[in-house]
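QUALITY CONTROL LOG
STEP: pairwise intake check
CHECKER ROLE: data steward
CRITERIA: each record must contain a sequence immediately followed by its structure tokens, with no blank fields

ENTRY 1 OF 2
RESULT FIELD BELOW
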Amino acid sequence: MRWIRFSQAGALAYGILEGERIVEVAGDPFGGWEKTRTVHALAEVKIEVPVIPPTFYCVGLNYTAHIKEAAAKFGTMPDLPTQPDVGYRSNNALIAHEENVVIPAGATKVQYEGELAVVIGKRAKNLSEAEALSCVLGYSIGNDVSERAWQKSDRTLWRAKNTDTFKPMGPWIETDVDLDALETRVRVNGTETSRFATNSMLFGVEAYISAISRYITLYPGDMIWMGTDGTSPDLRAGDEVEVEISGIGVLRNRFVAAAGKG
């Protein structure tokens, strides 16, 4: 099942995507729902961010190649984590499929990170890894846009990761997913620049859900972005980035200069 959050004529709703049509529901996938008789053509609605999470968790370093390549860029030795480490992102940065990422004035090294986004469907606490997926509603796609110069110079990630529009997500939530079968591909202006097995993580979805729920209660709508592999070219205004995860879909966003920036 594909859950899509959309708007039409200013009205916001959830629906179930069936091919190129959306069956609107009363309610939402987190608190109860039922189908209505209202049907929309996908091409006639605006796709919105699939969920605005109560808490936006993230995984910073979760693929060996990415860690080694990042260390080389920053002139440090690679330091592979020995346990799941959890961070946070800010909701203000979320934008939807086909919305623009705005490169702010002063940004000099903007890069993509194509990521699997895990959407929690029900309250969870103290789950074992064997139980972990029982709380998952489904999966979406995220692009964890980063400004690497700021990431290197600042003491925190407050602007390098959380600048407005730096977190494209979508286009929907897919509930029927085989994690081991997923492949992530990223294209810039139609040319493939990255490809990796999505689930070849140091610590998988189950490990992170178990680790988080040991200390923090997970709630419906929470989400966890699972990190990325490989490296990204520096992006410029006019570039279009597509993040595709097989079986889920394609997230597409154009990068544009901030108003007044050349």
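ENTRY 2 OF 2
RESULT FIELD BELOW
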Amino acid sequence: MNTHHRINYIELQAEDLEAVKDFYSRVFGWKFMDYGPEYVAFNDGVLDGGFAKGEKRGGGSPLVILYSENLEASLKAIEEAGGAIVQPIYSFPGGRRFHFTDPAGNELAVWSEV
């Protein structure tokens, strides 16, 4: 459902679309649909987005933050799937989170209330 002024799609760049599809399906269970060799759309069960083939965007890229019910298990799954932890778990007002990079070099974060 589209809601005015709410995020409903995120687009990222990736040189290797197969690597990011494998990574996100293994770690987070995302579903993918290919739109030719240059673009793949995803759905995480709530939010839609896509990966366009190409080099990652520079410093102006948004930080996408994912929620986890078990932060440690998510961190482990990311590492096992080939992601790199760039900022270990830390506390902030309202919860804890960590940052990682995916196989394409995109930086994201995962957070939890506990």
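INTAKE CHECK: passed for both entries
DESCRIPTIVE NOTE, ENTRY 2: The domain at 9-56+63-112 is CATH 3.10.180.10 (2,3-Dihydroxybiphenyl 1,2-Dioxygenase; domain 1).
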